[in-house]
Amino acid sequence: MKESKAHTSIHEMHMRAQDDAAADKKREHLAELSAGALHPAVDLYSTEVYANRELSWLDFNWRVLNEALDPTAPLLERLKFICITVSNLDEFFMIRVSGLKQHIELGVTDLSPSGMTADETLNAIREEVCNMNAAMSKCFIEDIMPGLEREGVHLLSYADLDDEDRSWCEEYFIQHVFPVLSPLAIDPGHPFPHLLNRSLNLIITVIDPVTGDERIAVVQVPPVVPRLVHIRVKKRGYRYVLLGEVIAANAGALFTGLRVRDSYRFRVTRNADFEIADDEAADLLKTIEEQVRRRRWGAVVRIEVDKNMPAKLQRMLRDALHLRDREIYPIDGPMNLADFLVLTQLPLRHLKDAPFTPRIVPAMRGDADVFERIRQNDIFLHHPYDSFSSVLEFIEDAADDPDVLAIKQTLYRTNGGSGIIKALARAAENGKQVTAFIELKARFDEENNIIWARELEHAGVHVVYGIIGLKTHCKLALVVRRENKRLRTYVHLGSGNYNEITARIYTDFGLLTCREDIAFEAAELFNYLTGYSHQTKWNKIIVAPISLRQKLLSLIQRETDMQRAGTQGSITAKLNALVDAQVIRALYRASRAGVSIKLCVRGICCLKPGLPGVSDNIHVTSIVGRFLEHSRVFVFGNGGDPEVYFSSADWMPRNLNRRVEAMFLIEDPAIKKRILDSIVPTIFADNVKAYTLQSDGRYIRPAVVPGQPRINSQEAFIRSAELASKEGVENEEGE
Questions:
Q1: pLDDT for res 283
Q2: Count of the separate structural domains present in the chain
Q3: 572: exposed, middle or buried (C-beta count within 10 Å: 0-12, 13-18, 19+)?
Q4: Predicted confidence band at 371 (pLDDT cuts at 50, 70, 90)?
Q5: Residues 494 and 391 both lie in one domain
Q6: How many angstroms separate the CA atoms of 374 and 42, rounded?
Q7: Residue 23 lies in a domain
Q8: Which of 245, 307, 382, 646 has the lowest CB atom count within 10 Å?
Q9: Is 473 a catalytic residue?
Q10: Which of 473, 492, 534, 619 is catalytic?
């Protein structure tokens, strides 16, 4: 296994070009002057035209939480969205909030494009998160649990247990909990313990009955024991009590000879972000393993405390963990509601969304092998409506086909028991040349990727990981096959990860093709990843950080120039985040020229639509629904001959500057027609799960118009896939 170090000079060259802010500003100033005849001068560097990135992300998390607050949604789906909201907040604090705290500690005074300082942003974050916590707790306590109780699912307070239940819990505590507990005293001889990241703990006050002295101890709620203790006394229904309550009620067993007075819960969140100087790391894999271990012990960025915890104990925790008051978050009700996700697995189908089976696209049916199908036409896949099994079949058939000579694939995030991993290993064992480019630095998947890397290397796969200074985020698989005394290359490109689990709940686009021009550039991209290729001319596959930023800006500028020349310009894009200030300024200039711009941005959007003289012609929506919107498609009008691109990249500095990404051109007429006539219009017609971004930063639901059909784009795609699948089966039966 080795790290690719061939790109230091070319990467530095790209970064110097991209970070030359003075040159960019000069060029953009000239563009502003040329646009002055149409609009009064507007300072596109003004803080007033940019939304704060962190607060925009919190707006997105509110939209996720709104799915849980919707009383018309199935109960367990509402619980699921609460769990997602909590998990999202954890990552937000571990990465984004920790970064802001580091800025303050290092004395960094640079303002964000929105003009907010790090200190101002942290104050605003606290206010929003406190409101979010209150809304989640209220929903859980007043809606979710009463609804589950009506279905026979009970979360019981330990104080309300009868004698039989308590006896069972005491026995459970002795057998399954007591042996793994370690009470940690806090006094001058015992400093405050170093608690694990995201650990749930009890702070317990005990009294010495002889001296009357008060003492403090901390007990970590063990993560190796289920948080929801299923009381298995012979009674109907599902009855649970929280593990923390079981420990608190039986804490006397931990402090023999002392009297337990009270206990309160608290939870620690630590900085989990780390930067690796991989050009200085002799062994990147070992370095990342060490950093992953250290992640559990980063500086504390937040503590959540029981809202009833006395102020004295809160101050003690604050001082011991070196925090400020604003970093203490009181919680009403159970902490870390993400632990309740296990309840969504209960066999209560009527409390969940109706099951949906992805279809097998017509091009992947029949007796012909996968390669013959791809030779006939490019194959478009729209996940999760189209089954990911088609991608798996492509790799599995390549692994077993005696005419396949080589397989190359990037892996950013995959799943346990992955069929992709097994197929690549089998291909190597079958004597094929197999190269897997595994991104070890995929955040929070580092440990999994290390496991896959070692498993594949053991099977004989050539594993490559890491380009210095970059993450490899493009989604690409390449198969070389011998056909009629020549070699033909087959390619899969996509917007999503090679992950069979997330492919069921993320929306993504994929393309299977053997077009020679795409195949050539795909091979060049792998050469860039693994070798010394300095290819700079990309036509079908546009690669970051080499040329993707420049290509995006040139496409936006082309629409702007066409508009100024009298031809209607248009830009339609669906992506996950829009943060990059240079791209935003280009979109603002296009809008000022009259270009029609429609954006569907799932998460962070630092662009402000509808600003007079700046973004009058920009319309922004966000869809949050049953599936996570993850697909990326960009359509540029091109004077009536639209160009359609799929991409792995969002419009963020990290994607354009610090990641290897791919944006690829869609040329198959049938696929283009489906994208332009069906998929994109359906996405932008959504008036059920879509929000519209206002110029003041608020997201609002479209008003219900009497007589206007209600369109939920995800449900529309489900119905379309089910109908197409049914028609396909009927056609096969008719044959």
A1: 53
A2: 3
A3: buried
A4: very high
A5: yes
A6: 50
A7: no
A8: 307
A9: yes
A10: 473
Whether 75 is covered by a domain: the verdict is no
Residue range 469-525, pLDDT digits in tens: 788 899 999 999 999 989 999 999 999 999 999 999 999 999 999 999 999 999 999
Q: Would you state the pLDDT for residue 312? A: 95
Residue of 592, 636, 622, 586 lying closest to 610 (CA atoms) = 592
| Helix ranges, 443-530 (H) | 446-459, 516-530
Residue that wins the pLDDT comparison between 448 and 51: 51
Q: Are residues 510 and 552 in the same domain?
A: no
Query: Residue 333: is its pLDDT beyond 70?
Result: yes
DSSP letter (8 states) at residue 231: -
Q: Which residue has the tokens 């709940």?
A: 505
CATH of the domain at 558: 3.30.870.10
What per-residue confidence (pLDDT) applies to 319? Answer: 94
Q: How many CA atoms lie within 13 A of 179 on its CB side?
A: 7
**What band does 6 get if pLDDT is binned at 50, 70 and 90?**
very low
Q: Are residues 178 and 120 in the same domain?
A: yes
* Residue with the two structure tokens 């519209």: 692
Q: Give the C-alpha separation, 421 to 414, whole Å.
A: 8
- Choosing from 309, 327, 351, the residue where a domain stops is 351
pLDDT tens per residue, range 233-250: 877 779 999 999 999 999
Rounded percentage of the chain residues whose pLDDT exceeds 70:
88
459's tokens: 């099977």
Domain end marker among 537, 560, 594: 537
Query: CATH code at 261?
Result: 3.30.1840.10
Q: Coil, strand, or helix at residue 649?
A: coil
The Cα–Cα gap between 611 and 605 comes to 14
Contacts of 345 (CB under 8 A, 6+ apart): none
Nearest to 306 by CA among 330, 324, 326, 339: 330
What six digits make up the tokens of 306? 């029981």
Question: Is 672 within 8 Å of 584 (Cβ atoms)?
Answer: no
Q: What range defines the domain where residue 593 resides?
A: 35-50+542-726
Are the beta carbons of 331 and 86 closer than 8 angstroms? no
Which two three-digit tokens encode residue 243? 């593990």
Tell me how far apart the alpha carbons of residues 17 and 654 are, in angstroms, rounded to a whole number: 15
Token digits of residue 226: 């289920």
pLDDT at 14 over 70: no
What gap in Å lies between CA 424 and CA 406, rounded to an integer?
A: 10
**Six token digits for residue 140:** 């859980």
List, edge to edge, every strand of the sheet that includes 153-156.
153-156, 238-242, 228-230
Residues 206, 236, single domain; the answer is: yes
Three state DSSP letters for 552-602: HHHHHHHHHHHHHCCCCCEEEEEECCECCHHHHHHHHHHHHHCCEEEEEEC
Decide if 699 is inside a domain.
yes
Beta strand 596-601 with 570-575 is: parallel
Domain check: are 223 and 322 in the same one?
A: yes
309: its two tokens: 């915890």
Q: How far apart are CA 529 and CA 288, in angstroms?
A: 20
**Mean of all residue pLDDT scores within the chain:** 89
Q: How far apart are CA 654 and CA 441, in angstroms?
A: 13
| Shared domain check, 175 and 201 | yes
Are 112 and 238 in a shared domain?
yes
Stretch 719-731: mean pLDDT, rounded? 75
Q: Are 512 and 590 in a shared domain?
A: no
Q: Work out the angle between the directed axes of helices 389-400 and 419-429 (0-180°, nearest 10).
A: 10
- Residue type present at position 656: L
Quick check: is 596 in a domain?
Answer: yes
